[in-house]
Amino acid sequence: MELKDLKRKLYKPESDFEERLKVPELFEPEKEREKKSSKEWEKKEKKLFSLSSGQKKYLLIGSISIVVVFLATAGFMFWRGLTSFDIDNVKLEINGPERIISGEEVVYKVKYQNNTKLSLKNIKLIFYYPEGSIHLSSDNLIESLNLADLEAGQENQVEFPVRIIGLKDEIKKVSVRLSYEPGEITSVFNNQAEFSSEIILVPLILNFDIPKELVNGQLFEFSLKFLNQSDVSFNNLQIKLDYPSGFNFKSSEPQSSEENNIWTIGEIDAGEELEIFINGDIQGEEGDSKPFKAQVGILDNDQFITYSESISALKISSSPLSAIQTVNDSSNYIAEAGEKLNYQINYKNTTNVGIRSVVITSELKGNALDYETLDLKDGSFDGNSQTITWRTSNLPELEFLGPGQEGKVNFSVRVKKPLPINNYNDKNFEIINKVKVDSLQAPLSLKDIDIAGQNEISVKIKSQLTVQAQAYYKDDLIANSGPIPPKVGQTTTYTIKLRLVNSSNDLSDVKVEVFLPPHVKWIGNFNPTNSNLEYNFNTGQLIWDIGNLASATGILLPVKEVAFQVSITPGLANVGHLLELIGQSKVSGYDNFISSEISGTDKPIDTDLPDDLTVSSSQGIVSQ
């Protein structure tokens, strides 16, 4: 129906209309959207269920794959839970005493436990002992053990007995490392642990018995007691003493093993006590403190390991009567054979009271002294005791020595030359003089005090090392050739000999040095052929390196000698002159007794050959 017809009919009374096709509904936007969505889903659903057979097959395979992956992942997670390994679940610990006694045997217990779900294989345990340990397995401070497999949930324990040595309050640490392979895993895992013990007591006791005060230069004796308070024996022990500056060691009982301050004890039983006696004198200023230190321990790889130690000190005080002496104005003089020794003894009353009837004695010792040369003023000499005495009868000043009064006495004596070397024990000559200043009438105020002053001085005799250079044309060691006298343009060869003599002390680092002039040629022929000779063609220097040279070489032992050959070819300028064959010879070496270097020289040698009796001096002059 057209719009105009509808309008006429609408506004015409009693007009009839056709029925509606359907009942009108209220318009709701949300419902319209739902209807639309529902229709779209229906379309998709119809499309889905309308897949082809191939698409449905691929969809089924994909679903099955997802299920398989899920099941595999779940299985792996389950298996991993059964086979996983955590190193923290392997427990390792050390148990032992936290406080120990040095030298006492202790036991460290190493416990290891497997709290994992895997067995531990190829187990190796390494135990590290502290320094100063003594154990039976070996001398090594590291002990390694191969252990049996440890199953899941199992534990085991290993014991390490050891005797630990150390100082009081010292902390000793032990440690352990456990290596293993868990289950089928080929990697090596490591666990570590450590434990510390403190030494609270040292049963090896060292005690000094030493004077509290001494005067400068005083001779004295002290002792060192060593006690093993433990219940066990100790082996290979050494006692080492460190002396203060100014202490001069004289002797000990028993004798020291080395260097006057080390004694090898070997074994000392439980409860055993030893004592060492040492003699010496002490030098120092009034008020000085002189500490003595003793240590007991073992020598391990040239290193002294201390088990126990003790320190004691004495004080230098002034003696009522003091004595100080010098030799040739020195308190530490080294002398030579034949030398004159001038002794001076200074004495003094150091108190504020007078001292009567003073006596001075000087006791000389040493078979290197020539007593026939003794030059003595005022005093008297006793040849039997080799003692010089000054008293009031020959030195009136000693009748009374007032407060602070001092004086001096002198004498001289020579060292023998040659030294008395009659056997191989005649070596290391030393002259000792012991001086004592005392009184026969000590004042009442000093009656409880040792008023005597003492002093000792030692003079060591150095070895006499000489070199003698000789030249020969006719020699039984090396044959020579050429004209004698030497002629212009012609070559003549000579044999040079260097001879060494060493008197009284063993020497080391001995060398002879000599220079050949430019016109002298080194042939390279020498005897003995094993001699250590080195010639420098650029400088003309010849060095003969001997090394050690025993005492009495050339006296009781054969002379040390080397011979070598040189040549000259004179020129016109040399006509009518002697030619020098070698320059000055110089020998040097280290004297082990006096701890110092010594040396000697010999003059140059010309072609006049002073030691070859077959050649006259005129036959050494160059001719045409």
Layout of helices and strands, plus pairs?
Blueprint: H1 3-11, H2 29-48, H3 53-83, E1 90-95, E2 99-101, E3 105-114, E4 120-128, E5 133-134, E6 142-147, E7 155-164, E8 171-182, E9 189-201, E10 204-209, E11 213-215, E12 219-228, E13 234-242, E14 247-253, E15 262-268, E16 273-282, E17 289-300, E18 303-317, E19 321-327, E20 334-335, E21 340-349, E22 355-365, E23 369-376, E24 380-382, E25 387-390, E26 400-401, E27 406-415, E28 430-441, E29 453-461, E30 465-472, E31 492-502, E32 507-515, E33 520-527, E34 533-536, E35 541-549, E36 560-568, E37 580-582, E38 585-591, E39 596-602, E40 605-606
Parallel strand pairs: 2-9, 11-18, 20-29
Antiparallel strand pairs: 1-3, 3-7, 4-6, 4-8, 5-7, 8-9, 10-12, 12-16, 13-15, 13-17, 14-16, 17-18, 19-21, 21-27, 22-25, 22-26, 22-28, 23-27, 24-25, 28-29, 30-31, 31-36, 32-35, 32-38, 33-36, 34-35, 37-40, 38-39
Description:
With 624 residues, the chain is mainly beta. It folds into four domains: 87-201, Immunoglobulins (Immunoglobulin-like, Sandwich), CATH 2.60.40; 204-317, Sandwich (Immunoglobulin-like); 321-461, Immunoglobulin-like (Sandwich), CATH 2.60.40.10; 465-620, Immunoglobulin-like (Sandwich), CATH 2.60.40.290. Strand 24 (380-382) and strand 25 (387-390) form a beta hairpin. The longest helix is centred in the first third of the chain and has 31 residues, at 53-83. The termini are far apart. Mean pLDDT is 87; it is low at 33-37, 43-49 and 76-82.
